[in-house]
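RECORD CONTENTS
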Amino acid sequence: MKLRSMLFIPANKTRYIDKGLDSDVDALILDLEDSVSQELKEEARLQIIDYSKKDLLEGKTVFIRINEINSINFIEDISKVILPGIDGIMPSKINDEKDIEYLDRLLLFFERKNGLPDNKISLAPLIETASAVARVNEIARASKRLVAICFGGEDYLNDIGSIVTYNEEAFIMPRSAIVNAARKEKIKPIDTPFIDYKNQDAFLKKSQESYKNGFAGRLLLHPIQIDACNKAYMPDEEQIEMAERVIDAEEDAIKNNKNIILVGGKMIGPPMLKKCKNAIRQFTE
């Protein structure tokens, strides 16, 4: 499942949903939380049901961002959107692994109730509280449904008391924790949205840095970010060319019983070889 770009769309906005379905984004996140006011949440759920019934979500990876577990909307969300065409749930403001375990059991119940295969619905929880960051390793291994863990930077800043200015320095520790936890469990770490969505140059630069630091993709606020995001979270042409040279050199070494792999006069060790093979896999998957 490619998750380089994951675009939030208010689930009650059919015009935006239609555009998202026709875009090159890897995954849509139909939002029932922050972008939908309380009085419109039921309308948004009904829109998701309608799109599912009409098979309009097929062919695109679709997640639903549901309201947090302790909210009045949580059960309404999860009881109504476990449907054909839905690939995953993005629970908001997760606190610890117990929340994931609870969700896992609920999803199994509604999968069976609605005639879906067991474990059909994936999980990509938002890590956006101090408690979730502290328990991120446990969260990452709490369910086989997890395909990603996603960083929600703005809510995290609010939770730690940094509410006046947007301070990316406060992201250093949680970003590292999320990447390490996700990669250890072979799931995808997804970076927080880039707020200044109109600044494409800064977005591309920051996203390329994010990719180099281990993230597999990014949450998006606007479709204008899709193309740059898909580009940023992939090896570039220079990296692919180098990877191909290394792999060719390995094949030549094996063929000629050489113990050392050389490329451009430099010795290639196992870590570099693994990195190159990973780059080719990302490029071709």
About this structure: The radius of gyration is 20 Å.
